[in-house]
Each structure stands twice: as C-alpha cells, then as structure tokens.
C-alpha cells in the first residue's frame, strides 16, 4: 500500500487498513482500495455526505464477519420463485442457473469508470473475497427473476456483483438487504446493458437498529436500452443506497421510483447520479418518504446532461410526508445541463398529512389511526402501482402494510 488513510484515522478506518494490508492486495484490488484510502470513510464535511455521516456512525471498529452456516429462513420473495443467489456475510451460494444465464466468479476485475473514484465502491471491490459475475446471453429473455439476497450478521461485510446483458437481452433482478445486530454491510453491483437490452431492478432494504448498510449500483446503458428501478427503504441506524447510471447510447430510457418508510431513529439516504451522454435519452425519477418519530430521510438526485446529449427529456421529483415534529427530510435535487435542446425539470416538497383529508375520512366511519394509515398507504403505495410482476408488487405492498401497523 503506497497510501495511507487520513491523519488520525478512526478505529474502524485503522481496522480496514490493517485488514487490507493483511490481504496483500495486488492489481485492480489494490487500485480499488486506494480509492477508499484517499478519503477514508465519507463524512459530513464532504458535500455529498453532509446528511449521512458514515465516519461518525462507524467510529468504533467492527471486526470482519464470520461465515454463518445456520439455516436461513425463506426469502419474502419466495412466492415469485426466483433464481436465488444468497450472500450471507459476504459468502455467496447458488445452485445451477436459468437457461441463458451464466454464473462465474472473479477476484481482480477493475472498477467501473462510473465509480472508480468512489471510496465505498473501492472498498467493496478490494475487500470482497470474490465478485459474482452474472452474464445474460444476447437476445435471451429471462422470465425468472434473479434474486441477490444479501444477509448481514454481526461484523463487517463486503460484497461485489457484476451483471452484463447482451444485445436485446431482458432480465429482472431483485436485491434484498437484511441485517441483524451490529454490522457494517458494504456492497457494490456493476451492470452493463447492450443495445436494446432491458433490465428491471427491485430493491427491498430493511436493516437493524444497530446496522450500517451501504450499497452502490453503477450501470452503463447502450443505444435504445432501458433500465427501471423500484425500491422500498425501511432504513437502519444508517442506510445509504446509491444509483449511478450513464446513458451512453442514444434513446436510452431510465425510470426510477423509490419510497422510504422510516420510524424510530432510522436513517435512509437515497442518492443517485444520472449521466446523459447521448441524444434522445428519457429519464423519470420519483421518490417519496413517510417519516415518523425521529427518523431522517435523505434524497439526493442529480441529472447531468452533457453537451452532446441533445433532446434529453429528464424529470425528477421528491416528496416527503412528515408524521412527527422531530422527523427530518433532507432533499437535494440538482440539474447540471450543458446542452441547449433539452426538457429537464425537478421539484421537492415536504409537509404533514392533510387535515381536511383526515376529517373527510373520519366522517366515513374510520377512526384516526385507520384514516392516517390509509392516507400514508395511498401516498407511498403509488410507487409500486405500476410494477408489472404481480408477485413482486405484492411483496412491496405487504412490507409497507406491515410497517403501517406501527404507525399512529
């Protein structure tokens, strides 16, 4: 290691540096760790992290997690009969693969240029024992969802997956994030979509009150390819889910929908960067959050339109519902535009439940708790209303309904 961490590293940072030295990293993994070592754990003095201070949340050292061989309960997505890749404390297991899908592993793949300077992406690439390679053959239409099921137990966990879709291929990927106890789970998923390829990604994140969850997703889109993403975040002590997309081919289509349902002192940060680099791309992004108690919901979304990306059509909105006087919503929608023939817009709102709507529903025989729950469900449930897969849609609505049971 030619570089060291920042002056006065925290116990966690010192432990990560020691672990990297013990691994004697070489090649691409060494270069990836340098991306982390230049800054250490992100903190509030960094512009993109001012509302999610990871260094403060991970000040004390957390030892590496041990593989867990206990029987794992069935996934909540079991009803959709996915092809499941279980990643327990960073160790992956699967059996076979659907036709048109090839699964392999690699240990020294270079980082995607989209995140080559990202400290957490570099940390995951360097510290994961191996990366899972998922390849979808050209023209293959994979009807069976691929489930990347990430489960964290006590300890520090790093995982990496790489996904490629050939020209004209189509697939659905589900990523679930669950954890118990005190842990730091850091994952990286990189994807590349060939011409006219289509990828639907679904995310369900539900961490523990003591857990810290970070996940970075980076995808490049070729001409006429499409990417859609629907996510439900239930938070953790700190959870940050990032999405980085580069529309490199003409007429790429991007659709991002997400919802945060947070209570207690839970924190969830949804951060995204969409790079429009070719003509005619269409992007839609919508995020909604319902926050109660002392919960903190963060949304940071940025559209970057390059000089040559004429006829870009990109729109973003973020809406927060504050259910207590102590809940906090932090929104930062951004546009950075260098082309002159575009249609781009962004907006953000935050507010409480409409008292008139509550009164109207109370007049229809509902008590106050029922009325509040129904309004919150209508507000957040819109995020999942257009999911084409009925089984996946049912899982999201069920998890939201479970959360609403505790909403007063």
Describe the protein's architecture and organization.
The protein has helices at 11-23, 27-37, 54-57, 119-127, 355-362, 368-381, 390-404; strands at residues 83-88, 91-93, 101-106, 131-136, 146-152, 155-165, 170-179, 183-193, 198-206, 212-221, 226-233, 238-247, 253-262, 267-276, 282-291, 296-305, 313-322, 328-337, 343-351. It has 408 residues and is of the alpha/beta class. It folds into two domains: 11-249, no CATH class; 354-408, no CATH class. A ten-stranded mixed β-sheet has the order 2-1-5-7-9-11-13-15-17-19, covered by helices on one side. It has a nine-stranded mixed β-sheet with strand order 3-4-6-8-10-12-14-16-18. It starts with 10 loop residues before the first helix and ends with a helix. The model has no long low-confidence stretch (mean pLDDT 93).
In angstroms, what is the radius of gyration?
A: 21 Å
Structural class: alpha/beta
Number of domains: 2
The neighbouring-strand order within the major sheet is 2-1-5-7-9-11-13-15-17-19
Give the % helix: 10-25%
Strand content: 35-45%
Give the ordered list of helices and strands. Answer: HHHEEEHEEEEEEEEEEEEEEEEHHH
Largest sheet: 10 strands, mixed
Number of β-strand runs: 19
**What does the overall shape look like?**
globular
Distance between the termini: 53 Å
Mean pLDDT level: 93
Number of helices: 7
- Low-confidence segments, given as residue ranges, are none
Summarize the structure.
18% of the residues lie in helices and 41% in strands. With 408 residues, it is of the alpha/beta class.
